[in-house]
Amino acid sequence: MSVRSAIFGTTSLVFIATGASADVSANDIWTDWQNYMASFGYSVDGTETMSGNTLNISNLKMSIPVPEADGNFELSLDSVDFVENGDGTVNLVFSETMPMSFVALGPEGEAVSGSLDYTMSNMEMRASGEPDKVQYDYSADQIGMTLTELVIDDEALSSDALEVSFTSNGLSGQSIMEPVALRKIVQTMALGATQYKVAFVDPESDAKVNFDGSMASVNMQGDSVLPISFDPENVQAALESGFAVDGTLSYTGSKTDFSIIGGGDEIIGSSSSETASIGVTMNKDALGYSGSSTGVSFNMNGNQMPLPIVAGLGQIAFNMLIPVAKSETPSDFALGVTLGDFVASDQLWSMFDPAKVLPRDPATISFDLIGKAKLLFDFFDPTQMAAVENGEAMPAELNAVTLRNLRVAAAGAELTGTGDFTFDNNDLESFGGFPKPTGGIDVGLVGGNGLMDKLVQMGLLPQEQAMGARMMMGLFTRPGEGPDSLTTKLEINEQGHILANGQRIR
């Protein structure tokens, strides 16, 4: 079963909304629901019965084939009521437990089937608006999901062999859905305290692996545009038809405890963060990811480890943007990484610096790249991708790169840099098949000589290597404004010459 299929199957029941002034009927909402699921390839089957103001759908089954796993995913509900309230709104009433099932082939061709229970406590959902702009509100005291059965080659795994579950308290959300030529969805969702558990026995080592996690709060918001009918397996066609998504998931107070115990070995640890967020944007032109986390800590200990590993980071962040469509003009790309304020326990430091020669200030590595590139193939077209992977086609032309905010700070030294380069794709000879660059980079180093002195003192850097490094720095750098400070400007001019502080070195 694909993750995408599972997500579609569960979130289809959690549409969302704000109030509106027009009217919708029970049949309007049921019809929109069917159309929405059908657009993803689901087959929807159920028995319709209208009694008074209530449309009841009994024996409801929604299923979708999963081609990559040679199987299918199915969601079953004994009954769903669409209740007209008499004021132009409709309440959706579900049973508290909804069984889901899947059938697939495993990675080695084994037959895999299973079932899950999706539970909702005091779930309330109201639809309002008008047929071409349906709005939903929902809330629940608690939602959860539990794996109830997993069968591999006709052998059911016991609960001791595999356990998967999660629960969340205080669910609330809103959504607006416009089922026009392109279905537009704007949604938000919030969860309170959330817990999850994954436990299994490793079949090769018989070790018991356990993960117990929690989050204080979870928030999601997103905008998406879906073609009325498209094949989720054909991403390229979906994008060309208008598919787009822009969403963010954030959470606070995350903690995970883990353990691996078996065969005389034992590893126990935990990780946590104060805040975290993940963002994704995708449309016909670009694909982007971003993420950040603050107050990150990690610890691990075991009977085969010489000492506990205890470390932390004040901040982790990344961002990436790449073009995905073939184009005659350059498109934006970006890549950024921050590993900020890394700290380690004194025990770890003492393994290689027992005399405390090196400063133990928090360390940081960060950089930010932006640029322009011309993509020469459609990223999600499997045929074009295969040609690139086989070396039959060039993937892209690099046009420009800007380095912003390079910073490496550790052990009392700090390296910084910024730069800009453009690239001539008509000249692939000057630099051995690489487009000829033109531009420069400014680099600064503070505390470099002091760090080398300390490394020599610790015996980690031979004296002769330190002398060689200082000679090289003397050739290509010049003194900066402060003590133990060096700067350099490296350039590549129009003639293809490489210069350091104006002095030609190639």
Description:
By secondary structure, this protein is mainly β. Among the domains are: about 1-145 and about 165-175, no CATH class; about 410-505, no CATH class. About 15% of the residues lie in helices and about 60% in strands. It contains seven helices and 27 strands. It has helices spanning about 5-10, 25-40, 235-240, 345-350, 380-390, 450-460, 465-475; strands at about 45-50, 55-65, 70-85, 90-95, 95-105, 110-120, 125-130, 135-150, 155, 160-180, 180-190, 195-200, 210-215, 215-225, 245-260, 265-280, 285-300, 310-325, 330-345, 365-375, 395-410, 415-425, 435-445, 480, 485-490, 500, 505. The chain has a 27-stranded antiparallel beta sheet that branches. A hairpin with a 6-residue loop joins β17 and β18. It is globular, with a radius of gyration of 29 Å. About 15% of the residues are buried. The model is unreliable at about 1-20 (pLDDT under 50).
